[in-house]
Amino acid sequence: MRNLIVAAGLLASLTVAAGAFAQTTTASSASASGQANVGVSLPGATTTTTTVAVAGTSDHDQMVGRLAVGYFGIANVGAGANIAGGPNDSPYSVTGLAPVVGVRYWISPLLGLDLGLGLSVIGGSLKEPDPAARVDRTSFTGFLIHGGVPLALASTGSFAFEVIPELNVGIGHAATDIPGTPGDTSYNGFHFDVGARVGAEISFGFMKLPQLSLVGSVGLRFDSDSGKTNDTEAPPMGTPVGKSSSSRSEFHTTVGPNPWAIFTNQIAALYYF
After folding, report:
1. CA dist list (Å): 119 to 100, 142, 169
2. Which of 210, 221, 242, 256 could make an SS bond with 231 (beta carbons 3.0 to 4.6 A apart)?
3. Cα(102)–Cα(162) distance, rounded to whole angstroms?
4. Same domain, 126 and 254
5. Does 100 share its domain with 37?
6. Interatomic CA distance for residues 107 and 210, integer angstroms
7. Domains in the chain, number
8. How many CA atoms, within 13 angstroms, populate the side-chain half-sphere of residue 233?
9. 120 in Cβ contact with 98 (< 8 Å)
10. Are 273 and 69 in contact (CB under 8 A)?
11. Boundaries of domain holding 17
12. What does the radius of gyration of the chain's CA atoms come to, in whole angstroms?
C-alpha cells in the first residue's frame, strides 16, 4: 500500500512537470514568432498578435550602398576684374552659370558623400556688313567642383532629415582679341565657398518609386571671389599696359530674397541606381 501511494505521488509530479514544460515551450515559440496570447482566450476568440517594428525600413535606408545621379543646384563662376560696377556688384567682369551635376553615395544610414562638377563654355562671333566690324565674342570657360558630406540624422517612411556640410571651388578664364589691335585681354577668376545646409530628402516611395527623391534645404555659406584682368591691347605688341584686380567676400544665407529662389537654387533632384 505504501509503495502504491509513493508511485501515485511520483506519477502526479511527472505529470505536473510535463505540463509546465509544454507551456514554457509554447510561450517560447510564440515569442520567437512575434505572437503572444493576451489573457485567457475564450472558445472562438481571435488571438491578439503583437507586431515588432523592424529597424531600417525607411526609403532612405534602402538606398544605402546605392549610387545616385542628380542635379545639385546652380552656381556662378566668373573671370576678370569688374572695376566699372558698384561696390557690392559682382567682382567679375565676365560671368557664367555652371549648373552642378554629380553623384551621391550613402556609405551608411548616417554618412554619405556628394561629388559634383559644373561646366560653362561660351564662345561665338558677331558679324556685321562691314568686315572691319566683325569681331569674336568674349570666350569664357568655367569649372566648378562640388563636394559635400550629407548626414541623415533621422529618417522614416519617405522622409529623411539631413544636414549637409559642403564646399565649392571654381575657376574661370576668358579672353578677347580685337582684330587689327596688337595684343589681347585675358581674364581670370577664382571662387571658393564653404557652408552647410539643413533640409529634407523626400523620396517618391509613396508612389512606388523610392529611387527618385528631391532635396530641399536652407543654410549658411561663406563666399570668396576674386577676378583679375590683364590688358595688352596696345603697342608695342605684348607690352602689359594695364592690370587690375577685384575681390569680394560674403557671409550669407543660401536662400535669396525672392521667394522662388528655394526652388531655382536649393532644390536638388536625385535618382538612385
Report:
1. 8, 6, 12
2. 242
3. 18
4. yes
5. no
6. 18
7. 2
8. 13
9. yes
10. yes
11. 1-52
12. 35
- Give the Cβ contact number of residue 56 at 10 Å: 10
Q: Which residues are registered as beta bridge partners of 36?
A: none
Burial annotation 135-173 (CB, 10 A radius, 16+ → b, else e): eeebbbbbbbbbebebebeebeebebebebebbbebebb
pLDDT tens digit sequence for 94-152: 888 888 999 999 999 999 999 999 999 988 877 777 666 666 777 899 999 999 999 99
Grid cell digits, residue 50: 503583437
pLDDT band of residue 241 (cuts 50, 70, 90) is low
Closest listed residue to residue 79, CA positions, set 142, 169, 144: 142
Q: The pTM is what? A: 0.69
Residue 229: Cβ within 10 Å count: 23
Q: How far, in Å, CA of 39 to CA of 16, rounded?
A: 21
Can you give the three-state secondary structure of the chain, one letter per residue? CHHHHHHHHHHHHHHHHHHHHHHHHHHHHHHHCCECCCCCCCCCCCCCECCCCCCCCCHHHHCCCCEEEEEEECCEEEECCCCCCCCCCCCCCEEEECCEEEEEEECCCCEEEEEEEEEEEECCEECCCCHHHCEECCEEEEEEEEEECCEEEEEECCEEEEEEEEEEEEEEEEEECCCCCCCCEEEEEEEEEEEEEEEEEEEEHHHCEEEEEEEEEEEEEEEEEEEEEEECCCCCCCCCCEEEEEEEEEEEECCCCCCCHHHHCCEEEEEEC
Position 67 scores a pLDDT of 93
- Asked if the bond preceding 43 is cis, omega within 30° of 0, the reply is no
How many Cα atoms within 13 Å fall on the side-chain side of residue 89? Answer: 13
Q: Are residues 134 and 234 in the same domain?
A: yes
Kindly tell me the burial class for residue 264, based on how many C-beta atoms sit within 10 Å of its own C-beta (0-12, 13-18, 19 or more).
Answer: exposed
